[in-house]
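Need tokens for this chain, all 147 residues.
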Amino acid sequence: MIRVTQPYRVRGRRSPAPAAELDASWAAVLATLDTAGTPLIVGGRSSGARVACRTAGTVGATGILALAFPLHPPGRPDRSRAPELLTGLPTLVVNGDRDPFGIPEATPGVEVVVRPGAGHDLRRDLAGTAAAVVAWLARHGWADPSL
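Here are the structure tokens for all 147 residues:
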């Protein structure tokens, strides 16, 4: 597993950079990796989940893990970002049932796990969230189910 911190966070900013900048930074990091023979599962939390979805096809991903996918800005369900999830790749979305950014609906290829009592930070029952992720990875043959 490789964890990437977006440049705007490294610079100490709290709000994300424009989507094109986020996507380019992400793709540049992934281009340095040798993933030959290894499935590339891309993912992120919140804005990072959106970046993973938008770039998955161009970076050669095998699957997507979208934690706390922000379906829409709080209070603005009319501004849905659901189309970003429609990548054609196996995708797991894990959201809390108290997330003010909304909860995407499952669609073909997109599995949605809703964590009870969790908000956008997904900090409630981390072990349960991890178990759901490992189970999804194992169903696709990308992880040992005994993890």
